[in-house]
Amino acid sequence: MPGPLVNFLWLVGILGEAAVVVCALKKGAFRRYFLLNLYMAGLMCVELGRYKILSEYGLKSTQFQYFYFYSDAVLTIFLYFALCTLYSHVFSEMKAERYVKMGAFLLLAGTALFTYAVVQQSAAKLVTHFVVELSQNLYFVGVVLTYVLWGAILKLRETRTRLIQLVLSLGIYFSLLAANYAVRNLFPQLCSVFIPLVQLCGIFLPLAWAYAFWRLPEEARLVPARLAVIPR
Amino acid sequence: MMAAIIFVCSVVFLLQFFVSYCRSLIAASIKHPLSAEVQDVTGIKNSASGEDFDRVVQLLHLCPDRPEDRNGIQAIGAYFGLLGFVRSSVARLVPSLLAWTETERGQCTYFAAVTLERRIAFSRDMFAQQLES
Lengths: 232, 133
Description:
The complex is a heterodimer of chains A (232) and B (133). Chain A has 232 residues and is mainly α. Chain A has seven helices and no strands. Chain A has one domain (4-227): Rhopdopsin 7-helix transmembrane proteins (Up-down Bundle). Chain A has helices at residues 4-26, 34-57, 62-90, 97-119, 126-156, 161-186, 191-215. Chain A is globular. Chain B has helices at residues 2-30, 36-42, 53-62, 67-88, 95-132. In chain B, helix 1 (2-30) crosses helix 5 (95-132). The model of chain B has no long low-confidence stretch (mean pLDDT 87). Chains A and B meet through helix 5, helix 6 and helix 7 of A and helix 1 and helix 4 of B.
């Protein structure tokens, strides 16, 4: 059985994910940020599934490890497409949606192929390590893409506060998870420590998005140049 | 090797995103004028100082908690700690950085004061609702 801390983290995470969808629905932002909300709803279902498997089989069981890593890989791909919709929002005036979609598919296929090329060198690890490597690489690609998007926001002088906060919080989340996966790959023997750590990092995104949907109206504006680490 | 590079890059990106995210939280609240009552309680009249941050956060903890504010205030608290670290280390060598951290710390205090005002208003609403029922 999971301990009280894990239970607490799980509960906060699931409630946060539900809060994002509820806040978006209440503030009329559900359709505008449909994929983001769909990701949150999917994450909530996966978290419930993980909790059930964890309670039945335990943290170190093969069942939990398989379910955890495979569901994580699927969710990462989903989040990757959610990020692409944020690109579409930022570039909406340029009518660049088609190019964004095409680029996203190419990059996803490229990342999967690169991961396969790295993992196939040791056939024994192929099944188990492919998803872990793919998640790590996709999170890293996500970090880079979010950083590029952030650069575009600054360059295009995007002023929508809600959109800016959604992008920045996604950047923090991607960076936290990419760093976490990288450390896990460096020290695989500490796997059981890093799964609860991911949960802790994972709480940030739902709370930040719920805040952005609830607190910030779609019309809220700010000067993005104020947010750059190096003043412009 | 690959994992080590990813780790280092992720930490650098994380810092950049974190600072920008905190500044976006602050920027969203900076236009909010403080009521005379909160100005009296916090002692913030025109501009806030970083020295007042701990005191304002203590006042904040006296008010009933609002779940939607918790994430923001924790992030700003961590940002304030990061600024304190920069101020006491790197900023000693770069004077312009010292002035920048001081301004940022003051804005963190202002954010905490705005959150305090929202919590006071929230408590009043709850109290009024209880009286009505």
